Amino acid sequence: MPELRVHTFIFLISLVLGASGVLKAANQESVDYFLKVSIDVHSSTIKGVASIRLKQGDTLLVETGSLRVRDLRLGGKQLNLPGHKERLSVAASRPGLLRIEYEAVFKPRIPSTPTRDLEYTSVIGEQGVSLTGTWYPRIDRLCRYHLSARLPQGFEAVSEADVIRKSREAGKTVFTFQFPYPLDQITLVGSDRYKVTKERHGRIDVFAYFFAAESDLVPTYMEQTRRYLQLYEGMLGPYPYKRFSVVENILPTGFSMPTFTLLGQDVVRLPFIPATSLGHEVLHQWFGNLVYVDYAKGNWAEGLTTYLADHFFEEQKNAGASYRKDLLIDYQSYVNKGNEFPLAEFRGRTDYASKAIGYGKAAMLFHMLKRRLGNNVFLSSLRYFVATHCHRQASWDDLRNSFEKESGKDLREYFEEWVHEKGLPDLTPEDTEAGGREGGWETRGTLVQWERPYSIDVPVTLISSEGSSAKTLSVEKRRTGFVMSSATFPDSLSMDPEYDLARKLGRREFPPVIARLLGSDKTIIVPSPTGSAIYADVVDAFLQRGALLAGSSSLTDAAMTDATLLLLGADNPVALGLFGPIKQEGGFSISVKENPLNPARVIAVLCADSKEEVTLAFNRIFHYGRYSRLAFQQGRNIARSVEATESGIRRDVVVIPQLDHATREALEQVIRHAAQKKIVYVGEAHDHFADHLVELEIIKGMHRSAPPVAIGMEMFPKSAQPALDDYVAGRIDERQFLKQSRYFTGWGFDYKLYRPILNYARAQGIPVVALNAEKELVRKIYRAGLNSLSPEEKSKLPASLDFSDRSYEEKLKSVFKEHEGWEKERFEFFYQAQVLWDETMAESIVAFLEAHPAYKMVVLAGSGHVANGSGIPRRVARRLASPSAIVLIASDVEKGAADYVVSPKAVAFEPAPKLMVFLKEESGKVIIQSFPADSISEKAGMKPGDVILAIDRVPVRSTDDAKIELLSHKKGDKVIISVLRHEPSGEEREIPFDLIL
Question: What is the model's pLDDT at position 12?
Answer without folding.
Answer: 32
